[in-house]
Design a protein that fits this description.
80 residues, 6 helices
Length: 80
């Protein structure tokens, strides 16, 4: 989670957006954005998604668990 938070922080800085700008656009308070950038696991996944959307990274979020190779192997074993 810390790595994710750091990646979000770096993405915000690359876009030259302030914490205030991102938090307002994501409809969260600045404290919540601070927690996200620290990788706090108690922040809702919706808040993380809203920040990623503001940064234009929502498609990355949608890739999570999309390629479930292990799950497909288990499913294939059931078919045999």
């Amino acid at each position: 989670m810390e790595s994710l938070g750091e990646n979000i922080k770096l993405a915000r800085k690359r876009r030259k957006l302030t914490m205030v700008q991102v938090s307002e656009r994501a409809d969260i308070d600045r404290t919540t954005l601070y927690k996200i950038e620290k990788g706090n696991s108690k922040v809702s996944i919706g808040a993380y998604f809203n920040v990623l959307r503001v940064l234009g990274l929502q498609d990355d979020f949608l890739k999570l668990a999309a390629d479930d190779e292990f799950g497909r192997k288990l499913q294939d074993l059931d078919l045999l």
